[in-house]
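Sat 14:20. Reprocessing the chain from the morning session after the first attempt stalled halfway. Input below, unchanged.
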Amino acid sequence: MSAGADATFGPVAADLARLEEVIRGSFGDDHPAAAAPMADLFASGGKRLRPALVLLCAHLGEYRFDRVAPAAIAVELTHAATLVHDDVIDRSPTRRGRPTAAASAGSEAAILVGDHYFARAYLESSRTGLAEVVSELAAAVMRICAAELEQQAALRNYHPSLESYMMRIEGKTAALLAACCRIGGLLGGLDSPDREALGRYGNALGLAFQIADDVLDYTSEESELGKPVGHDLLEGSATLPLMLSEGLDRMLPDGRRLSAETVDAVVREVRSGQGPQRALARASELADEARAELARFGEREAARTLDALATYVVSRKL
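Finished this time. Tokens:
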């Protein structure tokens, strides 16, 4: 975790550090061929936003670390498994500046690594003793898979509708964050209306997070991203900064794979235009929607931290 992210997590920063040690230590119990690439992925860092949401939302009720830890571990392993599979699908050679599992061990092995940690995530979630935690996680993974299938079907459609883009990122990113928030509320003993409000917070937060991430894919440098700039476009996916840019239609013929040279030219045009700023404005609106869901929780420290997180996900650099 970065120092900035660590500070952002407020009352759960220390427990999140404990959780990190538990997760990394647990890889020794797994098959070495599965554990090695996953341990390398964790060693490369990460925001740990998802387990933080579980802990913070539980803090709004009756918080016990030993009760929430298995669920927090489960959501982070789920996220990590999706990254391993995403890198296979996208044929990504690097992530966070390191070789992906697919690049180092091959696609077949990487798929099995991801499968292993999806299974382990369900095992960890079952240790909460609550079937609802397992079902929340399973439902989120099903939505992630459905959104990925929709994205694959829409590859090289460089002019998608705003509705289809929002539905896709809701499934791929926001669904898991919403589940994290509801799971945390459940383990904190909150009632159903409070948990649903947290789910809406997590959904809006996830949409804002993904839009900001899509902006960074155009505005950051490869050394910062840990992967090529414009990688999504090279793979055939249009995201909001591109969609809100003007004058690019002639460069983006639907149905055709773009050359690296064309992608570089499009990235330059997007960077010089208003698309990234317009996309960030939409992300900020979604962050405001997320914050509005926290009003019912008053001035509790965890609520203030969740409020600050909504600002962080839009304003972060990487």
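The chain has a mean pLDDT of 94.
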